[in-house]
Every structure is written in C-alpha cells, then in structure tokens.
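Worked example 3. Consider a protein that binds beta-D-galactopyranose.
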Amino acid sequence: MKALKSFVSAAAICAAGAVSAAELEVTHWWTSGGEAAAVAEFAKAFDATEHTWVDGAIAGSGGVARPIIISRIIGGEPMGATQLNHGRQAEELVEAGLMLDLTDIAEAEGWRDIVNPVRLLDACTLDGRVYCVPVNIHSPQWLWLSHEAFAKAGVDVPSDWFEFVDAAPKLKEVGVVPLAMGQQAWQTELAFNAIMVAVGGTELYLDVLSNKNADTAASAEMTKVFEAYDAARRLSEGSNVNDWNQATNLVITGQAGGQIHGDWAQGEFQVAEQVAGEDYTCLPGLGVNEVIATGGDAFYFPLNDDPDIEEAQREMASLLISKEVQVAFNLKKGSLPIRGDIDLSAANDCMKKGLKILADGNVLPDSVNTLSADTRNQIESLMTEFWNDKSVTVEAVQAAYVDIMASAD
Ligand code: GAL
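Given these inputs, the predicted complex is written out as structure tokens:
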C-alpha cells in the first residue's frame, strides 16, 4: 500500500509541473583535508534532493579563488552557487544586481530569528535585502599547540601567547620551529589581527579595525602590538611552507610548536585523527583575550535566466541553513554553526570553547566585515613584507599602517 501511495504522490507532483531537477556548479576554495570533508557534507545533502551538486573546487584558498569567482560572475559566466566570506567581498557584485535576492526565503523561514549572532545575516544584507546564506562562523584568533613538540622540548604546553613566546627558545634547541606560518599574504594579516586583539585588547581592536581610527593606529598601545608582531615573525624561521594547511601539518606532526590560525585548522587535526586536549591544545584569543571575531563563510547565488537553476538555488539556500546540515558541516569544518538551536553534543573540546565564548557574547566583527577588500589587500601586502623582510622596522611598518588606516574605507 505504501509503495502505491508514494507512486501516486510522485505522479501528482510531476503532474503539478514541479520544476525539473537541475545541476548546480558550486565554486569554493575548500580543498584541504578538513575542508573537503566538510564541503562533502553539503554536496551529500544537496544530492539527496532532486538536484545535483557539481563541485567546482578552486585550490589556493580565498586569495586565489575570489578573483576567479568574481571575474566569472562579472564576465557573464556565472556558476550556480559560490562560497565567499560574508561581508564586503561581494558588495560590488550585489550592487551591480548580479546576485539572487534571497529575502523572501529568509523571511519565510525566519532567518533573523535563527541566525546567531544576527550580525552574520546583517553581513549578507544590503539595503534591507538578503543576498547570501551564512553557513558558519569562522574565527581567526586561535593558537594551535602541538603536545608532541612541547614534550620534545621538555616544556609544559603554554596556556597563553606570552608563555608560548617564552617557551620558543626551548623549542628551537630541539629543532622545532616555534611558530608555523604559510607564505600566503592573508595568513600574516590574520596573525596580526589576532595579536592585536590579544596584546592590544578589544577596545583597541575595535577602534582600529571598525572605527578605522588612524590616531589609535599610531598610538603607543599599537606600538606594543607591532613589537609583539615583530617577536612573532622571528619565531617562524624554518617554516618553509606556502598553504595554511601545510603550516597546520607542521604542528600536527610536531615539527612546529604552534600556529596562529582560524578554527578551520581544526578540520586538519580531525582528519589526522588527533584529539583536542590530548594531542593538541587550542587557545581562543591566543589564551589572552577570549573573543571570537564573527567572520565566516556564506553562499551566494549569481543570477541565472534558467528557472530550474533558480529553483535549485533557492532549495540549496534553505538546505545549507537547516539544522541537520549545519551540524554535519560545522563538525567536520571546525567552525561554529550560524544557529543556536541545534544539538552539538558531538562538539569537541575546541568547538565547546568557541560555543561558550559565543554564548557569553564575547564576539567582535571581523575585518572582512569592516574593511573594504582593497584596504584589506593593502594591509595583507604590508604585513607580508614586514614578516619576510627583517630589515623593516617596527616604526616603519606602523607608519605605513597608519597611512593605510588614514584612507581606509
Ligand atoms: C575561509 C574558509 C577556511 C579557509 C580560509 C582561508 O573562508 O572557511 O576554510 O579556507 O578561508 O582562505
């Protein structure tokens, strides 16, 4: 009887002229082990509908993928869906009217009541209209520490950034690189902002990155931040890798003591079957100032003139914010879910730390939400130059930073 009923209902749907199945090409830059495991959860869920996920992974992280994605959309060769960081990266695409308006779905499904913190949805909203579905909170300010490396050096695992810096000579004595760092420019900018919020504090971080206050950028407090950053760059000698996940692998294998990096590093530890609290330690806010900057990833849907594609885009938007998909994806990604009404009992030690900080409201905007892509690119270039050229002084890099902030938008 059940088979007959399901046959009849399926026939009824077809008869009603339901939109036919579509293939969506999805571009993203999740190509490391942990990232691939996470995005596979999205693909699996979408393939369980009548539609098909055509994976368009672009290797090389955001700095490489974003220009490719943006030029395709502007050039009239849009993909069906794409990952970007929510915030100002897609601002020009949305203003050009190239992106699907998701407001009716967001209102019908109550996204403003679901998304937590709601600033994530604000980062998808322009002139009151919603153009992306946030899929995670990824926070950059974590220090990842290898238990193996510190055991090798005969030193306790540090409980904060300052203890880490003090332990560095012992790590070097046993041939361990104290601080792993990849060569992509955004990684050195990430480390700078993390040290700013840890060493300079929340108020300083907000005044510089949200208020774009050049006077504060020139202050004595910021000089202390640049001095700490100077110390950090001297700890990465020997970290001869390019991609962020290669740097994470140095920590996983005990070749490096630690890495300042986002929560997505956790996906790599999970793929390596390492256990938080046993094989590695994660310190949010570098163990000094436990805050989370609520940057994150979101999915955008370039306008397509095919109604089947648009229907599939709308279905994908709903799917990615659904409870079960949020749990499956974020547990593999190492990021935090964008909704507070789900069961994360399977969360590990690090995710639990992040969830508590979120629940306590210790959240900050990420520079991806407060600075234009152009301003961020200038800062990334400056920080990479400073990190790699030890002849550049603290005074020089701070003066150049002040100039950038003076014209930041
Ligand atoms: C984030 C992404 C991370 C990592 C990072 C580096 O947007 O969620 O997994 O790829 O960018 O580009």
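Take a moment to read the result before moving on. The radius of gyration is 22 Å. The CA atoms of residues 45 and 380 lie 36 Å apart.
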